[in-house]
User: Fold these one by one.
Assistant:
Number 1:
Amino acid sequence: MEARSASENSPGVPSAPQGRPRRGGYRRLPVQQRREQLIEVALELFAARPPEEVSLDDVAEAAGASRPLVYRYFAGGKQQLYEAALRSAADELTSRFSVPRKGSPTEQLAAVLDRYFDFVAEHDAGYGALLRGGSVVETARTSAIVDEVRRAALRRTLRHLGVRQAGPRLTMLVRSWISVVEGASLSWLDEGRQIPPAELRDWLVDQFVAMSAATAVHDPQTAQVLAGLLALEEPDGPAPALVERLRALLAAQPVVR
Amino acid sequence: MEARSASENSPGVPSAPQGRPRRGGYRRLPVQQRREQLIEVALELFAARPPEEVSLDDVAEAAGASRPLVYRYFAGGKQQLYEAALRSAADELTSRFSVPRKGSPTEQLAAVLDRYFDFVAEHDAGYGALLRGGSVVETARTSAIVDEVRRAALRRTLRHLGVRQAGPRLTMLVRSWISVVEGASLSWLDEGRQIPPAELRDWLVDQFVAMSAATAVHDPQTAQVLAGLLALEEPDGPAPALVERLRALLAAQPVVR
């Protein structure tokens, strides 16, 4: 909504001549650029510490700006800045859900998970605070942003599986697997990243196959989706390998009836 | 902390004679009983609507009490009342995690899940608001209460599995399965309870077995736990049945290498 050409001391009003020395020695930036810079700085701070431990002064200082200047851009203060930062992070995360064109279905899933875990690793404390809720800057609006990301993940995953109209069991399966991705990433952060990210990614792909298999034994739609997915796999890909290993594991269990 | 014998108009001070007519026609209750009643009424209201749509006046009205009286018990207002209600709900939920002595491991797990879903069904909107976060009465304290419940679920499940010291992979598996239980219950509420609760429970038990199997192929500790669990199962129980069905499903997939 702000004019891109305006200067920051009075957004919307034509800027004073560039290069003139400013009070306080702060660096002058064009409006849009400053706005983006403030969001970026805020994101970094919210990633490093829980949101309740980040003050507007911290943001101003890290941005090389004054507190009144931050307020000029975010009149709603920390809450508004947090929401803008969250929206920016949510957009970035959602953009990572786009599935590469190359590879088998599980290779594509693995590529998306790699990008997801890069994001988790970058945003660390901020990611945790976000998913866990309960931060003091958490509201119904921030919650809606997070829910939107989850819905986007559900839509993308179903589209990736070639599903147009998911029944309640397939929907529950995919939503639950998305919960596993969230839960595993939080657990990974909490436990000090003990498990290598590549192993975690492979584990999540395996979980997807195993959870689908356990659902497929009762739900025809999931059975069809799983069969379609396995048919597209490379013979030496992770899904056939898991199928083989599960076969061996199950064969080792005592046969019943 | 309050004396059980005190009356409510001045908690901590001996009560006026019982049975005397009161101003405003409100019913008089002993202090502890009134406190419990207010929490119970608040829980019902928070279960029926998102917490931000429940006012202290609503609580007072539903309890047959005045607003000042509610403030006398909960000087911190709605926030304090919400936390007390949440604490009470969390204690109730945690108490349902106790595993019955009878039955195979999966029968015991199913019994715990039945009690869990009774709780979800009773608390409905309140349960959703709680797990999703983002309610206006959500704080670091309420978040800590929810995290405590999750940690209790993790501890109980590991104890149930006979695990003393869980490695990072087994911990991640159990935490992830708990995320599945949460995600599935939210999905179940959101999708209008289309799936019968008994089917949902059986599905979650199956997911536990399948997720354990997929983890067991790479993690010796999980393999040991799963083998121990399956050894205790009844031949006609859900875990052997799933193992059989998975075998059949996997056998139907094209054999690789």
Number 2:
Amino acid sequence: MPAFTDKTSAGHFFEDFRIGQTIRHATPRTITAGDVAIYNGLFGGRFAVQSADSFARAIGYPGAPVDDLLVFHVVFGKTVPDISLNAVANLGYADCRFLKAVYPGDTLSATSEVIGLKENSSRKTGVVYVRSRGFNQHGGCVLDYVRWVMVRKRDEAAATPGDTVPDLPKQVSADALGGSCPAIKGDAYDTVLAGSPHRFGDYQAGEKIDHVDGVTVEEAEHQIATRLYQNTARVHFNQFTESKGRFGRRLIYGGHVMSLARALSFNGLGNAFHVAAINGGRHVAPLFAGCTVFAWTEVLDTAEIAGRKDVGALRLRTIATKNQPCSNFPRMQGEDYDPAVILELDYWAVMVR
Amino acid sequence: MPAFTDKTSAGHFFEDFRIGQTIRHATPRTITAGDVAIYNGLFGGRFAVQSADSFARAIGYPGAPVDDLLVFHVVFGKTVPDISLNAVANLGYADCRFLKAVYPGDTLSATSEVIGLKENSSRKTGVVYVRSRGFNQHGGCVLDYVRWVMVRKRDEAAATPGDTVPDLPKQVSADALGGSCPAIKGDAYDTVLAGSPHRFGDYQAGEKIDHVDGVTVEEAEHQIATRLYQNTARVHFNQFTESKGRFGRRLIYGGHVMSLARALSFNGLGNAFHVAAINGGRHVAPLFAGCTVFAWTEVLDTAEIAGRKDVGALRLRTIATKNQPCSNFPRMQGEDYDPAVILELDYWAVMVR
Amino acid sequence: MPAFTDKTSAGHFFEDFRIGQTIRHATPRTITAGDVAIYNGLFGGRFAVQSADSFARAIGYPGAPVDDLLVFHVVFGKTVPDISLNAVANLGYADCRFLKAVYPGDTLSATSEVIGLKENSSRKTGVVYVRSRGFNQHGGCVLDYVRWVMVRKRDEAAATPGDTVPDLPKQVSADALGGSCPAIKGDAYDTVLAGSPHRFGDYQAGEKIDHVDGVTVEEAEHQIATRLYQNTARVHFNQFTESKGRFGRRLIYGGHVMSLARALSFNGLGNAFHVAAINGGRHVAPLFAGCTVFAWTEVLDTAEIAGRKDVGALRLRTIATKNQPCSNFPRMQGEDYDPAVILELDYWAVMVR
């Protein structure tokens, strides 16, 4: 009679990964109106396209699509047990494109391809680069992005393949945007119902927008969100273990900050109804329950999308802070980030023209 | 390159309002089975009509309708960015009528008409009276109510129009009730499944009912609820700012207390399945997380509804308290409210005969 | 004018029950995709059958079924106002069988039959044994189980019927399992998507599995869950009263621990997609918010199900602990339970062969 088991998964360690390896992730997930409602209850989004079937239909969608970041979080969540269960830190994102709209009833699954590996000089950890993709039940790719993450080695002495660092684009080309956004009937786009009179042409590069409001995060909220995505990263849920760890408390999933900042950004960017791509993102510092999150955005660029007269694209850099309002647009202090900054997210939003 | 922006909304101030002005509010909202489930998880309602499609269909509804107060909160939430973002206090409600049942899948939008304005003698604030209306996606009015709220002036010196105080009914006429309640098949109304043997004829004016149970409110709960309604009032969400404010903590949305009291009232009013109208309401004192809410109800009146033999109406005054059970029916202490009282709500409930 | 009312229910006391009495419980409940989403957000289940319509359909279900324990909790919740509102302790479960799969849109109702009564020697309390059954809207029995609970007497001096203690099976026969599990197309069961390579034949009696992860419970989480089930037991919600009680705090619904342990058990039992029966369960010690729950499982038995080549049954004993990881499989300390143990659950899970 065996007293022990090898049935549980301990996740992969750095030396387990190989360039070109493709991993099909577990647990396909049907996104329902229930998931959308919980996401609304947790973040309070007010973009009319995602909020109302009638608004979405009037402008050309078949119904209200699922919020882009909810799609991101669900796909990301699937990758965790295989990619980042033994991660020390989530280092960055690149070339993230939302390729097809997702609607309630769609089922998402995910794969990741290992595209880079670089052992750290300590030999205790290495950086794993993966291109992850989310698919709907018809096999259509809804999301494609690169993530790199620092992963522990199981055994410091283990041999690892030579270093391969992928060449990643600094930004997604504007002409690659909009695949998941149908042709928008501009005449039917009611800016009063949408909550903002400002259309694409009203924004210009260099413009800074303080989103004003702040929102305090509770433990129950981020746990519910992160479980909703079936993200199993242990640091978010286990106070017993974390109380003995580096921070003494549960760490909030970085994606939670992305969603909070996106919801706050409605005040100033009310017609930026669709996140089309993420050029890059950095979780600058951790967030803990009890902190209040604020955000501000700089318009980095404005771009037309080839062949489209209905919508344009704003390249935005949204900064989220903790316990510091953003009226003075905090970002850097010399060479370092302002200590209040927790997230820097560089993304393309589609806005009605 | 502009360093600042005027893209964000600071809400309206007292001097911005004009009598007769009509405001179309932003962010239409499709109410789904997901919203209903979250509402159930937050309040635990047990009225069978709203809980079970099969029960609702048996008695004459096409399916379980959305809880009346959830409809109220969603419509109310839409009015906040335009009416009460700069409010000091929500003063009262009148003439609130639920006119059409709302079902999952319906999309709600809202308008408000300014029907009264009265500057306060301090000249720092004024009272704004609005008639707000909620509509479904077919343009049908589902809810119509008057609210008055004390709003800050942007500029004390600003000129304001002369005072206009609307004449408001003390109560909704019983004959105006029931528009959102279909003809009920009394024979199919199973009082065992409904959880109470007491029908309309069993109640009489003057009767007092202690609802016995108490429920403690957590920060995560009221935040999730209030965001679900897309209510953006800042005092509910921002501990950073509120910690420096009058109470030192986040204030719970007054409507949260209404829903808690309504859910508690099931124990004693199990067949009062529909809130048909709110005659008046007063948020007597603030509620904070960690407090336990109790409630009791006095039957103020019983009324037949013209032309209806299926249901009658109970005029109810529900009192909610914090940290004080209601077995001795607390309400006034001399001229003042008992300090435990947080809500007084005068409403008409429809009950099966 | 009456000052008091008898409209509220105080629940039943021990002397109110009679052998053979059948109680139809109140508040039928339609289970929606919203309820499923909240359940996912609270427990983070990863069993692919319940998570994805596409996975469920591929293997023979008409769509993703509702999690078995969510069905259990909803049916259990209905019994509380009639059976255990005046309970001192929930003592045990036996002969619990999941008889029909439940899908979103189904409406559940419940009945209980009193099958045993035994007064305690103190004459202050007695044990009530009930067989409770849950039904769908077509009258089909979806769940059948026995529960016994210690209930207060209203009046110590009240006469009670003689003792009747039912003869209860120690376990559900394996051949009685699987009624709610359709014929599974084994070829279509994708173990990569399911998240575990281990099928029925890979498990053997005596095997112990540490589920590794821990999850900390927040007050808001267990309150939302327990209200979702319309479970009205007061100890879970009322801090005002509980602060003066035995533990000084709200007690978490024992079923919450069952669901946490079941979700944790995915790591090691990923293909045990269906709880077919509960042989017995014991809430060994109370759980409070702030504690972290861990779990481990011993395979007690493996059994074929008569006539089925698609699935087999594992008899599992899952132990949940608080604030103690389970790598050394804690259960007993001499004759007593290890003080960290809070739940022992003996159940049959169906696993693909």
Number 3:
Amino acid sequence: MNARNFVGRVLAAVALAVLLVAGVVPAHAQQAAGAKSKVVMQVSDGDAAKWNLALNNAKNLQADLGAANVDIEIVAYGPGIGMLKADSVVGARVDEAIGAGVKVVACENTMRGQKLTKPDMLGSVGYVSAGVVEIMQRQQQGWAYIRP
Amino acid sequence: MNARNFVGRVLAAVALAVLLVAGVVPAHAQQAAGAKSKVVMQVSDGDAAKWNLALNNAKNLQADLGAANVDIEIVAYGPGIGMLKADSVVGARVDEAIGAGVKVVACENTMRGQKLTKPDMLGSVGYVSAGVVEIMQRQQQGWAYIRP
Amino acid sequence: MNARNFVGRVLAAVALAVLLVAGVVPAHAQQAAGAKSKVVMQVSDGDAAKWNLALNNAKNLQADLGAANVDIEIVAYGPGIGMLKADSVVGARVDEAIGAGVKVVACENTMRGQKLTKPDMLGSVGYVSAGVVEIMQRQQQGWAYIRP
């Protein structure tokens, strides 16, 4: 086998492997190869209609794609933090979404600003130190972004 | 020609070709090479001011870039579906945008939820089964996302 | 050194270099290699609470990541243009953000539509001809997008 044939044959396998391992080809490019869809959803409005819309969106994504085929993360911050408080009007729906595999996280910066602590929040939610940083980093990792 | 020189010369051509053909390099990377700009716009508010803003945005994108150089898709869902109803206050502007080459689609999930059928909608619009899935997939394909 | 070993060793270096130089690997993939984070933030609501939220978001991004590690650009257009007028209720905070390294730009299309000229605006802000085009292009360049 001469060098030209050799390079031709190994490039498809090796170049992809190298780039993927090196983290240089972004996640959404990997999605093109059939991997899981990934969506980060932002809730930053203090508006129960928006909270319900975000939960509807998550439900539709799972219904259409199959829950096993899509990672969904809802990040609540700013006035949106009310969605995840223990007395939230959508608390039952948030618990249900989490039970269905949706990741739901509250912004600790916002909580500090509003003097909220974990006992003030729904027991089922997770936490991130800064909601806006989380949303930015998810996009950098190739996640799609939905702002209901 | 020794192997080192050979690899140096063919990598630029072959690696790119392989990655592009394999669909591994995402669409917006291909845009960097001078291809068409692509933008998906979300309309999910039941607010005529937002509908007009989305239509203004589309118009400005076409004016600035040239209509032939940008693909624009407006996806209306949730409370935004009213933008595309037959009695929409912006119906004439929607028709005009579609005439100018903007793709405008309504979410069938939302329509079902609001007991709307195609005769209730503007005759010019298209349809997608789930607006939020469409928006996610466009981003996965490398489209920019604007949420007016 | 045989050809197989040679290709294995040079691919990591050469393939990446070629793709980066060719502009084929998008900016956010380059970010994965440890470069600066980049975020474009949209302000298109005529709502001072949203203006403050955008400024809070910028502050949190800088606090969490270190101001030297993140490029932030706030683009105000449509009803959001009020954020950057000389009489803006958040004028002092806008000046402060710009002093802290945040780029803040007003949409000249919007200004024309509202008969605003540069003397009507805060002295510290910059300008882009079309806010929506700027936001689209930043995403094409690999910037994350936040719409507070």
Number 4:
Amino acid sequence: MRRVPPGDNLPRWVCDACGEIHYQNPRLVIGTIPDYEGKILLCRRAIEPRYGYWTLPAGFMENAESTAQAALRETFEEAGAQVELGEPFSLISVPAVNQVHLFYRARMLSVEFKPGEETLEAALFDEARIPWKDIAFRTVALTLRHWFADRKTASFGFHAESLDR
Amino acid sequence: MRRVPPGDNLPRWVCDACGEIHYQNPRLVIGTIPDYEGKILLCRRAIEPRYGYWTLPAGFMENAESTAQAALRETFEEAGAQVELGEPFSLISVPAVNQVHLFYRARMLSVEFKPGEETLEAALFDEARIPWKDIAFRTVALTLRHWFADRKTASFGFHAESLDR
């Protein structure tokens, strides 16, 4: 049940049986922008939400790992791709769903990849062929737009922002 | 109790009474580096852990807010300070405690501040007077060191890293 624990100021999930307090804070979704000779690796989702839509490899950060480890793990789990991680590129809050999305730049170490369990197919796209109408999430579309815009200037920045409801 | 829900691959807290699954993912701790004419505002902690030690204003991001809103809220709650937020400055994973710490650059809009409920006292420090031996957390010390180093070069970067156990 939800109640305000002693010393707190917001209601939390508290287990009546064992007293465990389960704080529900925003979760980090972490992924990469895998670049192979200027093409970007996208995954078509085999799970809801947004089944069948295209996304960058990404997923929920797990306990006991760093943000960089989460990015590498998700890229391998979802796309079977080995990458060299670059700098963090975008950090986008999505308050409507209590998430923060973080994407790293990444260079694919080879052209090899294969879809994981949560992916229908994976494929490399150059800018002209990105399926903009079928991108799964606004944070992914925004990240890709920033990436292609920055590439034109040959200067990759760091993009922090928030998506309104 | 902890068990592996259907379709998952890690044990999660599942309520036997209502079936609610409480995922426990890393939490974001968000704060600022409040700058007033070159001095930095620090808070002495009135709570555990690290009671009595100095820290930057920061705290757990809450649901339904953005990272920037969390930074502003915590700065006001802990230090009573109104700031103009700058760019994200440091993003430091702490896998040992399942946390990710994010600090924003911030300019104090006035010299006014006052300690909040979780703060014994707040004070402005120039670089020579930072109480390095009494800083509460490694992420805060690291962030401050990056900040003063970057200020010397008049070029503030973005620092992403992970603290080993």
